[in-house]
User: Fold these one by one.
Assistant:
Number 1:
Amino acid sequence: MTESPDSAGRGLHADVLQQLGSAITSRRLAPGTIVTLEDLEATYGASRSVVREVVRVLESDGLVALRRRVGVVVLPPGNWNLFDSQIIRWRLASTGRLDQLRALMEVRVAVEPEAARLAALRSRRVDAGALMGLAGRLWVAGEQDDLAEFLELDIQFHQVVLASSGNDM
């Protein structure tokens, strides 16, 4: 099966986004670094339109700013949307993995007890049953040292807890 030009462009876009986002979040491209669109085209072998779209995505997450007559400026982490799932994944794949894990755990410790309290007060029976079932499956996965299954169930469990809390945020 051959790729259509459209699907090939999405693949290249995703590749360039992955590589450039990872370079920024791992600090291989340090805050304050300036690169031109031409530099990015040459580095990643991508067209101007692909590079511009990638820069727009990174700009929307606060990783870069496109400055006229200057270029693409890498911004410091204080500007980043640190709750964006892609930024979290890039940071987890970098040398800053432990810092990202610590930050995630601190957020969980701050939010989860209140979410669990609200879920206990507000959840529907079907959600309470789902939580009980997931808790049992989590225990089994932990006992069997099945990390992949445990992580998947952990995500499901916490999604149900958060949804059951009745708080849209």
Number 2:
Amino acid sequence: MAILKNGRNLGKLGDTTTYVLNGKIVTRLIGRSNKPISLPQKRVRLKTRLLSKFLNPIKEFIQVGYEEEGRRLALHAQNPAFAYNWRHGFKGEFPKISLDYRKILLTFGSMPVPKGVQVVVDRDGLLFSWDLQENVAGTHWSDQVMLMAYFPKLNKAIYLTAGTSRYKGKDLLSIFDIDHGEIAETYIAFIANDRKSISNSVYTGKVKW
């Protein structure tokens, strides 16, 4: 998509692209390469496709989860989220590359990570519990829990970005419109009540809903 800047269209327009090179406006035709796609290119394309599919239904969660890191880097939150997980969130070799849910980070920050987390299936959803971590530097009783259940087969996620306070020790992630028997990959994190600090997310296991 081209944008108008100083009276000129910059960017892609039709079969041309216009950009600034050494202070000059350059317009060139967009060509298609006839070269075979290399193995590294195939690997990059597959990882990008898999990660984009995963992040798409959890954009709101990622926006909250990487806001602190995005602010530090002066980037949109989606950018550091994609960059970190593209580097660390995969297993296997091409063409058998897949997401490694244990290594995925849905939130990124300096607050101490939650400890003693357990997840059990409740009648109305997934019940998460955790240690209170009283008197642990960087935590506060009013920190709010963030919960996620991602269903890979459905590419659907249920989540909370502002759950109950840390001092309560547990919270229910209600599950709606998901049939029982589906497998969920689950995560937990904590965020400060003033939204100025957040923990890394912690993978809390695979759960059969």
Number 3:
Amino acid sequence: MTRAQALENRAFLKLLRRTGNVRLACRELGLKYGTMQDRRRKHPAFAHAWDAALVFAQARIRSGAQALNKSRPSARAAVDSRFRGNDEGRSFRTAGGEMVMVRLKNGALQMRRAQPGKLTREAEQAFLAALSATCNVSLAAAAVGASEAAFHRRRRKDPAFAREVRMALSQGYDQLEMALLEAGMPGSREHDDWRSNEPPAMPPMTASQALQLMYLHQKEARLIAEPPHIRRRPRESEEAHSARLSAMYEEQIRRDREAFEVAEALRSER
């Protein structure tokens, strides 16, 4: 290769070590993607340096992402400030051209130029924060000015984001459950007016009618009824019912394992 080509290769490899993105490095230097690929095929030493630059970029980007996550103790406070009506909500969308980090299908990280109008990481965090408070995907998406479909699409493409959505839904469900339990506690006295009055007289009925009513309501009255989520559905076969219960059990085991792995990852960071 000529000296000019060698200088181009050196600049290309330097930028590739920073971004891990071949097309972006070519575009920033004004080089043709096909030209660089042709040099890679013809020169094994350049191909070897190319691969080494990609490996170095992965190590650099991953270490930078971990350091960034550890330096965000007030991320939740920043999200809460946006819910209070800050004009900083504009950062929920990219302006276009700024450098962003993306994860490829093979799990590798890569720097890219953002397209305008795309949801940012701040939008994801605000969505998850709203979801953990409401357990409502539509309402959480509206809180960041995005459609519900946009976050469903991210769940399908990004397993890590899907995991955080499940955790946020679980936390929001726990809060709803606690609110419901508090409303149903004896101290709430929300629906107990009837207890301060004398019960009305039993309407006249035959012994057969009384026995039929006792048969219909004995399970709920004596707390021996099956929970609704495991009860056999109308027209559901025995095999389908058994398969549904097995699938529910396996999913619960998988989620318990996932929760354990998340807890172990948090413990190892301390």
